[in-house]
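ok here's GNAT family N-acetyltransferase:
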Amino acid sequence: MKEIRYAKVNGESIPVVISDETEALLAAKADGRAIIGLAGMDGNPAEFALERLEDADEEILERAARRHLGLPWTICVTKRLIIREIFADDYEAIWENQVGTGFGTIEKLEAYTKNQYRFYGFGFWALIKQDSRELVGVAGLTIPRDWSGEGSWFSLKLPPPEDQEEPFEDALELGYHLFLPWRRMGYAREACLAILEYGRLQLGVSNYTAWIRKGNLASEKFAESLGFVREGNGGP
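and the structure:
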C-alpha cells in the first residue's frame, strides 16, 4: 500500500508518502520526499510510524513534512506564547543571552536540535511572543543530569492521563531561562505550566524534577509556585 497525502507548511503543500512497504518508502526518501511508515512493517526507514492510515491527520502530516524540511515543530500554544523547537535562526538571540554552554556555536545548536528532538521527542524549546514573534527565552524537558556545585533538587508529581494503562515511573527535569528584558511578566510560569501539561498528556510523564543552585531564592519560589517540593541537596 502506498498513498500520497499533502501537508500545509507555511502556506505550501508538501507531499508526504505513507506506505507499509519498505522499498516504496526508501524510493520516496531518495526522491527527496517526506515519508511515514505504518506499524508492523519490517525495517521502517521513516521517523514516524502510525498504527493505521486513518491516523495520518493534519498535525502528523505537518510534523513529518517539517522534520523532513528541517523546520521546527510547534509544541503548544498558550495565551501569549508559541512554544516551538529551537532552530538555527534562534542562535544569535540565544548566544547573546548566554543560555547554557551547549549552544556555544551555531554548529552545536544545530547538532542539538537534529539529534535531541529526533531521538527523544523533547528538549529545550523556544518561547516566542505571539504578537511580536520575539524570542523571549527557552524552557523544556531533559533527562535529569548530574549537576556540579551546591544546589537543591525539587520534585513534582502530577496525575497520570486517564487513558494511560501503565504509569511511566521515570522523571524528566524541567528547565527554564527567560531573557532579562522579559522577566517578571509571567511568561516563565505560563510556559512551564503548558510544558508540564504537554509532558503529562503527550509524553505520558507524571514525575518531574528541577535543580536549583544554592542562593537562587527566586527560582526556588518559582518552582514551589508550580507545585514542586524540595527533596534534598547536591546531585542525584
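+1. The CA atoms of residues 146 and 189 lie 25 Å apart.
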